[in-house]
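Per reviewer request, we include the raw input and output of the structure prediction for the construct analysed in the revised manuscript.
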Amino acid sequence: CSPLGSVTQAQRRRLFSAGRLAAADSADPLSRVRNIGIIAHIDAGKTTTTERMLHYAGFTRTIGDVDDGDTIMDYLPAERERGITIQSAAITFGWRDHQLHLIDTPGHVDFT
């Protein structure tokens, strides 16, 4: 039995989009999962975007910087030295009652 009783699907969508529907209220736990892959050409800001998403979600205290070599996603020594992503990296974190699975990909054609 749903804790929302006889609430229609349209009403559930409105509550959900307004952020009022808690995770326990969802009949399908996968409705709160989002899979995101960031794909673009070299130097487009994929890792920078990823680092900001992690920070604004509260996963990290500081925003990592590619130029400084202190990002979460670029962890290989060669990536930190060269300032580029060589290997795809995945991470899971929460955002507003959702679980996000994020993949940061290389932009260099040599590493795709």
